[in-house]
Write a structure and sequence with these properties.
This is Leucine-rich repeat-containing N-terminal plant-type domain-containing protein. It holds the Pfam family LRR_8. One of its GO terms (biological process) is anatomical structure morphogenesis. The protein is about 10% helix and about 20% strand.
């Protein structure tokens, strides 16, 4: 199971995230002229991708201050207050806008100096507003003409808001602008050609401005000072000769045209460029991802590349290789060619890059593509490589020994290939590795002892690598203090874990799930943010969790072990905890009062333990819960009304197999997001609430969201990790553990209680319900006549009650019904004729002496003598029959997860 960021978001959104990350590197390089990064390691540009992104804006401000210093600005000059005219203009700009986040809260008439307002910069000598920068402020509305009164404005940044309407034509009259960024908004219409009047522009960023188009791109040719141009997400499909326009911009150093439908342009350049033997392009950073480009683009790409090119992004295309001229770009440091859909022989790929590019290239991302064959010896030519990502390809064979000899390589991702990883002979060369991801490679069966020599690791992933061995005791004691991520899951590693106490950095993650570790856990690091020990044979108590005092813990999974004892009362330490899974152990006792501190908790899974007592009232403080699974314990008391009143976000509520008594509280009907309600095997009495028809998620075709939390993707801090919830569900007479398909399931199970009364007719309004089980109660009366309108029902179990009357004829319309049990009731009359109802075994109608008609042998009055046809439906003994439910889920959402892959569904990938 892959839960990587690439599977969480669309290619377009992922590219937008990459664009933010990309700026991080550019700011570093921009500062080199001012020697402000001398304190960094010479290679730290690419060795420290975990540095927080906000630093990029800080470094940019430093470089700007230096530039201002070079211009001779007197630091002793007292800033003048801004002019009344400009204050009025800014207040008029603010007036029609919605500002839910308070981004412009400092913009008030009471504060007469607008130079102190957030996002405003003034000239120190004149007081004129020169910069308006309100990016990512949550603003909604249209841009006011009042901005025209800011006559000295040279920097306008309105990006990452919700401005809408047409992009104002009047912006084309703001001729002092040097910097204009309208990206990531909700505009529509045409990019105004009047922008051609902005002849002083150096930076123009219009990426993802909304549903906008370019009528004629020729207006760009007028912007002779342009250095940076971003048009991501704007279609250029009809812009013939756009390459000519780009080449007319003599100072352009940065060009981003991601998602611009470039593959649809018929004539990207004019015939006058056909005979060019070299390119005069000044571009240093070129980003062409998500354009469905094939190798036919290499002819015009040549015109945009020169020895100045340092960054090239060709990701999310359909390229079947690269041309040799890319191997002669002696300044190329960053090459992204990930997520390409055409098969490429990796040795040929390396060979075509093996000119002077092989000496300059520092970063190569070729992940999630169709590279085949081996990781050959040609890799040794790339002596400057610091970052190499070849994960999620089809590489095979043994990794070349030459890979380990690369002197500057610090980050290596080879996961999800069919590679064999031999022990490196040159351990001294790899001792400086920081990130090593060999997930799903062939490393075992022995544990690679050479791993212990990598003293600079911050991330190690050896999950699902075929290791079937014990781990040397010294392994746990020799980790470097900066280690932040250790994943050994989904192997067959055995033995004890003596100590997880030392040498882990703040916010670290440890995943040892799905192995055969045994024995007690004595000590753990106090700074963990993730601890996953599930599906092992650990034993003893769990008081060790009280050692995790750093306040970072967001994920704790100890399920499927042999832990015993009580849940310690130290949960107040975990105010950031989102997932707590203690299921399938031998824990007992009451839930501690400190559970009230888990205000961020979204998943509480205690299934199959021996917890007892009433549910503590303090649990109602956990208002972020979306999945509450307390089944198969010994909880007692009434089903609390506060579950419906306080836990409004619940989509899973499982209280099955406990000792709850009393009636079903009407407050549960307030849980509009509820998709799984399981109160079976308790001592509940009373009637079924008719208000269950208010469970709107069971009416409308919508599905729950997965739990998201901040984590690390390949060392890069951007976005949310995913936890896919799972649960044991009674399904067609057997328990099944649902994983990724759980959020598709919509079920109500009230079986094995003491419920009385009728089935409320309102329940037939739950049109999206998939399973309904009311068996083993004392219900009576007739089945609602409109039950046939529940056309998505796959399973219906009304057995062992006191229902009477005829089986409604509308049930013949339930064509998806795969499992039906009406046995041991008082039904009478003919079983309605339909392919579906006649396909079930006769036993599903047993105990109803007045029923007649197929598939029963009992004839109805007037029926002719006939042979009983063979049963179409599956029997329990028919092992070859395909379960229609799983087939349905396979079509809808892919194959269900086996327990051996649970680790992959919960794997955390972010900081």
């Amino acid at each position: 199971m892959e839960s990587r960021l690439e599977q969480m978001v669309s290619p377009a959104n992922l590219i937008r995230i990459r664009r933010l990350y990309r700026n991080y590197f550019e700011d570093l390089f921009a500062m080199a002229d001012f020697e402000l990064i001398a304190f960094l390691h010479p290679n730290s540009l690419l060795l420290s991708p975990t540095l927080p992104l906000p630093l990029s804006s800080s470094w940019l401000s430093i470089s700007q201050l230096v530039r201002e210093g070079e211009g001779g600005v007197d630091a002793d000059v007292v800033m003048n207050k801004c002019l009344d005219k400009e204050i009025h203009a800014l207040l008029l700009f603010k007036a029609p806008l919605k500002d839910p986040d308070g981004g412009l809260s400092t913009w008030t008439a009471d504060e007469h100096d607008c130079c102190k307002w957030k996002g405003i910069t003034c000239n120190n000598q004149t007081g004129h507003v020169t910069k308006l920068e309100i990016s990512n402020s949550g603003l909604v509305g249209e841009i006011s003409h009042s901005l025209l009164n800011l006559s000295y404005l040279n920097h306008l940044d309105l990006s990452i808001n919700s401005f809408h309407g047409n992009i104002p034509i009047f912006i084309g009259s703001m001729t002092q602008l040097i910097y204009l960024d309208l990206s990531d908004n909700s505009f529509y219409g045409t990019i105004p050609p009047e922008f051609e009047n902005l002849t002083n522009l150096q930076h123009l960023q219009l990426s993802y401005v909304g549903r906008c188009r370019v009528e004629k791109i020729e207006w760009l040719s007028n912007l002779s000072h342009l250095e940076k141009l971003e048009l991501d997400g704007i279609s250029l499909a009809k812009q013939n000769h756009w390459v000519d326009v780009i080449l007319s911009l003599p100072k352009l150093s940065y060009l981003s045209l991601e998602g611009c439908e470039l593959s649809q342009v018929m004539y990207p350049y004019s015939s006058s460029f056909l005979n060019f033997s070299s390119s005069s392009s000044s571009i240093e950073g070129l980003y062409l991802g998500n354009n469905s480009l094939t190798s036919s683009m290499y002819r015009w790409l040549f015109l945009l590349t020169s020895n100045k090119l340092g960054y090239l992004d060709l990701s999310y295309n359909m390229l079947d290789g690269i041309p040799k001229y890319l191997g002669n770009l002696c300044s190329l440091e960053y090459l992204e060619i990930s997520n390409n859909s055409a098969a490429v022989q990796f040795p040929d790929f390396l060979n075509n890059l093996s000119g002077c590019t092989s000496l300059s290239l520092q970063w190569l991302d070729a992940s999630d593509s169709q590279f085949i064959e081996s990781l050959s010896n040609d890799i040794q030519k790339f002596s400057s490589l610091e970052y190499l990502d070849l994960s999620h390809n089809h590489l095979n064979g043994s990794i070349s020994e030459k890979l380990w000899e690369l002197p500057r390589l610090r980050t290596l991702y080879l996961s999800f290939n069919n590679l064999t990883v031999p022990s490196p002979d040159h351990l001294s060369n790899i001792s400086y590795f920081q990130y090593l991801d060999l997930r799903s490679s062939n490393i075992g069966p022995l544990f690679p002892k050479w791993i212990q020599t990598l003293k600079n690791l911050t991330r190690l992933d050896l999950s699902n690598t075929g290791i079937s061995d014990t781990i040397p005791l010294e392994f746990w004691d020799t980790w470097p203090s900066q280690l932040k991520y250790l994943n050994l899951s989904s192997n067959n590693i055995s033995g004890k874990v003596p100590d997880l106490l030392s040498s882990f950095a703040n916010g670290s993650k440890i995943d040892l799930s799905s192995n055969n570790f045994h024995g007690p856990i004595l000590n753990v690091s106090s700074t963990l943010s993730l601890l996953n020990l599930s599906r092992n044979k650990f034993s003893g108590g769990i008081s060790f969790i009280c050692q995790i005092v750093g306040g970072f813990l967001s994920f704790l999974d100890l399920s499927h072990n042999l832990f015993i004892g009580q849940l310690p009362d130290c949960l107040w330490l975990f105010k950031e905890l989102k997932v707590l899974n203690l299921g399938h152990n031998n824990l007992f006792g009451r839930l501690p009062p400190s559970i009230a501190s888990l205000i961020e908790l979204e998943v509480l899974y205690l299934y199959k333990n021996n917890f007892s007592g009433e549910l503590p009232l303090s649990l109602k403080n956990c208002t972020s819960l979306i999945s509450l699974n307390l089944g198969a314990n010994k909880f007692s008391g009434n089903v609390p009304v506060w579950i419906g009143e306080n836990l409004s976000g619940l989509y899973v509520l499982i209280l099955r197999s406990n000792n709850f008594f009393g009636t079903i509280p009407l407050q549960l009907c307030q849980l509009a997001n509820l998709q799984i309600l399981d109160l079976s095997m308790n001592n509940l009495h009373g009637t079924i609430p008719s208000c269950l028809s208010n469970l709107t998620s069971m009416i409308q075709p919508r599905f729950s969201q997965d739990v998201k939390f901040y984590t690390l993707v390949r060392g890069v801090a951007y976005g949310s990790g995913i936890y896919v919830d799972h649960a044991m569900i009674e399904w067609q007479g057997d328990e099944h553990e649902f994983f990724s398909t759980l959020k598709l399931l919509k079920t109500i199970d009230l079986s094995s209680n003491n419920l009385t009364g009728h089935i409320p007719y309102e329940i037939t309004n739950l049109y999206d319900l998939i399973a309904l089980s009311l068996s083993k109660n004392s219900l009576f009366g007739e089945i609602p006549q409109k039950i046939g309108e529940m056309k998505k029902l796959l399973t219906l179990d009304l057995s062992r009650n006191s229902f009477s009357g005829r089986i409604p004829s509308s049930m013949s319309q339930m064509t998806l019904l795969n499992d039906l049990d009406l046995s041991f009731n008082n039904f009478s009359g003919r079983i309605p004729s339909s392919t579906q109802l006649q396909s079930f075994e006769p036993s599903r109608y047993d105990g109803n002496s007045q029923l007649c008609g197929l598939p029963l042998t009992k004839k109805c009055p007037g029926d002719e003598e006939s042979e009983v046809p063979p049963i179409v439906g599956k029997s329990k003994s028919d092992a070859k029959d395909i379960d229609e439910f799983w087939g349905w889920f396979y079509v809808a959402h892919g194959p269900y997860r086996s327990t051996s892959f649970q680790k992959e569904t919960v794997e955390i990938k972010r900081l």
